[in-house]
Amino acid sequence: MHKIFLIIKREYLTRVRKKSFLVMTILGPLMMAAIVIVPIFLATRGNELKTVAVIDQTGVFFEKFKDTDNIKFHYLVSDIAAAKSSFRKSGDYALLFIPKTEVSIPTNAILYGESNVSINIISYIRNVMTKQVEDMKLEAKLRDLQTDKKNPLNVEDILRSVKTTIDVNTIKITDEGKEEKSYTEISMVLGMFAGILIYFFIFMFGSQVMRGVIEEKTNRIIEVIISSVKPFELMMGKIVGVGMVGLTQFLLWVVLTFGIVTVVTSTFVGKGTSKHTAEQTILQNAAKYNPDNLPLASAAPEKKSQNEGVNAVFEALDSVNFPVMIGAFIFFFIFGYLMYGSLFAAIGGAVDSEADTQQFMLPITVPLILSMVMAQFFIMDPSGQVAFWFSVFPLTSPVAMMIRIPFGVPYWQVALSMGMLVLTFLGTTWMAAKIYRTGILMYGKKISYKELWKWLRY
Amino acid sequence: MDIFSAQNISKQFSLHKALDQVSIAIPEGSIFGLLGPNGAGKTTFIRIINQIIAPDEGKLFYNGRELQPNDIYNIGYLPEERGLYKKMTVGEQAMYLAQLKGLSKQEAHRRLIYWFEKFEMKSWWNKKVEELSKGMQQKVQFLITIIHEPKLLIFDEPFSGFDPINASMLKDEIIAQKDKGATVIFSTHNMASVEELCDHIALINNARVVLDGPVRDIKKTYKTNTFEVAFNSFNGRLESILPSAFRIIKEWNDHELRLANIQIPADTTPNNLISALLPVVTIHSFIELIPSMNDIFIRVVTEKKSEPVLL
Asked: Nearest-CA distance from B137 to chain A in Å?
């Protein structure tokens, strides 16, 4: 056990100390932050004047939406169906509909738009509505207190009872006049992004394992080492060590990306006044639509509500359930990587140089590439048959599952996929150990599949 | 006392039989030569001793008890295919490999510093291996092999690739290790180094041990009672003055002297030869021709080759 730790340590440290690791660690988050910031930044910067039509059936918000530098509000008194049908001709950027509520406090609004409504308009509307509702509640509370003097004045109680969450659902009105809930777009981007990332990580670190094994073979150091440790220990030590480099890189990317995004947005984008993050709102929305599903439905954390100065860009990021996404990513990365890593290690052990790896690489890379090629089908129909089978089949499940997860996947499917992956990882490791053990002592022999099969049965 | 012995070891690689009922005993404190042509099974046998591969049949004993996994700490192995991580620094790499051999970090460091000073290698510590010459790398490899002070040292073709200066240094160091009480196995084709170093040998050919024992005894077995005599030229034929049972194998002139290789019958002594020669010629030198290990090697291997080989 002590020796495998030494091997892991060496594999880890030699890679982490490389310049290329440092470069990747810095460039990765810069790129990701740019992908996140630039479009949102451009959207928030748009200084063209946008008009928003308001139909307020509650009457509570009349004249409350003040025009800003680039948003102009005007109130309609027509009914919503008529307004929607004439919306495309009106030239308005968006149509805000606040439906009448049975109880006196309205907490819902629907925002219709032709394209995606820009995030700062949504957050402005939400801020105004929140403030208005909270003011009303506070007024009522204070009136109660004046009439009922017996109750002691408890500020915290008051604040808690006053706190309000406003849902602003955005709905896209398409050319055909159809409506689509547009909040799936963030799932799409996120799924695609997570899929590409896990594909990239498995490929990059898997082939690093292979190159490491080949390096030991061509350096001729391998026999020195396996006279002190078992070939299996050396193989697993290398796989685990490289995997930990991958995890380190990933965690550094997450931390640095958040850091960069936070710094950049708080510097350049004006601070909002919202007390409520979009996270809660969207999570609750999602919960309404798919109550049994993972992971958006799983518990809306309250923790962010004290965060006063959350700005528009950061809100967009907050709308993602990051703990679940990151957790799933780490699980599927670890086991997907372990499975592929052992296969890559077996190839490295069987060949003499990287040039000879081609014929063995093909059957390994095909499923991985295929799951990437099929990505758009998973996105179009995240709970369909194709997506299901790809996300259960272990060689494609890491990528396929990561693409599906932001859309919500039933627990049993996730559990099945994870179970299959772990079992396959055990199988490939057993197989790889056999091939590796024989292969590392072979030099100058062209290895065929027939030969590999023979090694498996030694 | 044998520090290591193997009993009836067999190993088969698919269709190829690498070792066939090999039994070898290695006396403690000896330098044991493992000889044999390429592909005879030497490296397979060495790998089995190092527990890199397991034998199909047979038993291995270390110090009189069966070989255990932990015995790798008692063995130092310098493989024929040897190398180092090119991008790692010498010191870090030496520390890593020493720790893999079971030394603690402090102990590994202490011993490495001692050896690096002894071999005047201190300035290499922070250099990358790729910056070292081949000879320097081999010094590092040698040092790593002995750093855990193993009781049994195994060198597979240790002199290949060494320049003469480093080779002789390596040879001295192998002898020094032996003097410290280590037992050395080394596998080689280099018969000159066998003559110089080994007290025991085993010759493996076609997966079997064909010759085994102390070098002195083997040479005794293979010697042919042939003597080389140098004498002043004389007019006459050598045959005429020797008894008929004495056989002249070779006769030639070297400057003023005449030389001959003469084989005498087993029941006679060198004195019989000298007394036959003395009345006629002046003897300048007289030595027994002991077969070299090279001769024995070639003789044994070619003899065995003429036998039908069953696959």
From this structure: 12
**Domain B224-289, CATH 3.60.140.10 — does that match?**
no
pLDDT tens per residue, range A413-425: 999 999 999 999 9
Beta pairing partners, B301? none
Domain A48-182 has CATH 3.80.10.10: no
Domain spans in chain B, listed from the N-terminal domain onward: 2-220, 224-289
Determine the average pLDDT of the residues in A32-47: 67
Asked whether the whole model's pTM tops 0.90, one would answer: no
Question: What ipTM was assigned to the predicted interfaces of this complex?
Answer: 0.80
Across the A:B interface, residue pairs with CB atoms under 8 Å apart total 57
Contact state of A228 with B86 under an 8 Å Cβ cutoff: no
| Domains of chain A, residue spans | 2-34+186-266+320-456, 48-182
The answer on pLDDT for A20 being more than 60 is yes
Band of pLDDT at residue B45, cut at 50, 70 and 90: very high
Q: What is the pLDDT of residue A272?
A: 43
At A331-386, the pLDDT tens digits run 999 999 999 999 999 999 888 888 888 888 888 889 989 998 888 888 878 788 88
Dihedral class, residue B154 (left if φ above 0, else alpha if ψ from -120 to 50, else beta):
beta
Confidence of residue A305 (pLDDT cuts 50, 70, 90): very low
Could you tell me if A225 lies within 8 Å of chain B, comparing CB atoms?
A: yes
Q: Does A373 touch chain B (CB under 8 A)?
A: no
- Domain covering B2-220: architecture: 3-Layer(aba) Sandwich (3.40)
Contact A225 B101 (CB under 8 A): no
At residue B185 the predicted structure's pLDDT band, cuts being 50, 70 and 90, is very high
A229 CB near a chain B CB, below 8 Å?
yes
Closest-CA residue in chain B for A440? B52
